[in-house]
Amino acid sequence: MTIIDGKLTAKNLREKLAIEVAEMKSEYGVQPSLTVVMVGDDPASQVYVKNKVQQTQAIGMISSEINMPANCSQSVLLDQIKALNHDSSVHGILVQLPLPHHIDESAVIAAIDPNKDVDGFHAINSGRLFNGDLGAMVPCTPQGCVLLIKQHLGGDLSGKHVVVIGRSNIVGKPVAMLLLQENCTVTITHSRTRNLPEVCRQADIVVAAVGIAEFVKADWIKEGATVIDVGINRVITHDGKYKLVGDVDYQAVIEGCGAITPVPGGVGPMTIACLLKNTLLAAQATISKRSV
Ligand SMILES: NC(=O)C1=CN([C@@H]2O[C@H](COP(=O)(O)OP(=O)(O)OC[C@H]3O[C@@H](n4cnc5c(N)ncnc54)[C@H](OP(=O)(O)O)[C@@H]3O)[C@@H](O)[C@H]2O)C=CC1
Ligand SMILES: Nc1nc(=O)c2c([nH]1)NC[C@@H]1CN(c3ccc(C(=O)N[C@@H](CCC(=O)O)C(=O)O)cc3)C=[N+]21
Ligand SMILES: [Mg+2]
Fold it and tell me: Please, which residues bridge with residue 60 across strands?
């Protein structure tokens, strides 16, 4: 049984990115920059934003954060995004989700310049991914999942049966598309799926993106299967502290699976590393435009 070390893999990826950032600065005088827009003060989002700001700067990129009050209107937020779209010193824009209920998330995502959409959530980018076009900005968490799977299984995923649990636009659907592109046989499951344990037992690889703490049980996992736990759930322990747990019943599943990503230290750090990679790609695209 292997515990897939996402923290280490993410650190190695960030080190490679740092070299490319330094080269970009010295050869073109361009420093990749990422702006995160946060509306309101969701505590879980704050942790993510804090990690992201620190890691962006650590690899030599510019990080800025725009905090807007929870009661800010949709039109004020859309104007802010338009200003960032027109600001050539900003290469990547990330609007932290979820947004307050009075704001239409899809309208906000649609307002982001697809070339600066480092989350890969804009319909132009999800369409490119769906069509198998190179040049899509690929959503960070799905990208991180696939990197961890390929690293563990040695690159070629042809013919592997993957069961994805969850069909959100930010994790389930895009991770399924990426794995299809890797020639996997992909089953997408969700809350209306019948006999989910039975379906999961067919899988060589299970990707759990459900949002329910310790939802996936040991007897759902075929012996030797690879388990990717995307879930980030904050639960209160018996001594009243918060801890993070995934969507997989980790302590039970480690007994029989072939490999598993821990929470924390699995997919989460890869999400941030892939965000930095997308920011570098967005900055590189502005240079190739300039030189022709
Ligand atoms: N590690 C990271 O970097 C990231 C982690 N996350 C975490 O990943 C998890 C999933 O996130 P996200 O995709 O945004 O979540 P959503 O809530 O948007 O989607 C959850 C999905 O799980 C399905 N589901 C819910 N209950 C069941 C059930 N009983 N049986 C089967 N399927 C079920 C839902 O089905 P239906 O569509 O039918 O409602 C839905 O498709 C969360 O814990 C989140 O915090 C998210 C982003 C990044
Ligand atoms: N526009 C947008 N894009 C996102 O990608 C996005 C978002 N909104 N909203 C929230 C979710 C969640 N998410 C996480 C990323 C990293 C960690 C992460 O770094 N986790 C660490 C530890 C964190 C800790 O210790 O609290 C780990 O799992 O080891 C967690 C969660 C990105 N999301
Ligand atoms: Mg959601």
Answer: none
Question: Residue length, the chain?
Answer: 292
Supply angle C-alpha 114, 95, 270, rounded to 5.
85
For 29-113, CATH gives: 3.40.50.10860
**Superfamily of 140-268 according to CATH:** NAD(P)-binding Rossmann-like Domain (3.40.50.720)
Model's pTM, two decimal places? 0.97
Beta strand residue intervals within the chain, DSSP E? 2-3, 33-39, 62-68, 92-95, 161-165, 185-189, 205-208, 226-229, 233-236, 242-245, 259-260
Binding residues for NADP(+): 166-168, 232
Predicted complex: ipTM over 0.90: yes
The response to whether residue 246 sits with its C-beta less than 6 Å from ligand 2 reads no
The answer to whether the beta carbons of residues 214 and 248 sit under 8 Å apart is yes
Q: Of 117, 119, 204, 249, which one is the catalytic site residue? A: 119
pLDDT tens sequence across 48-98? 888 899 999 999 999 999 999 999 999 999 999 999 999 999 999 999 999
Domain ranges of the chain: 29-113, 140-268
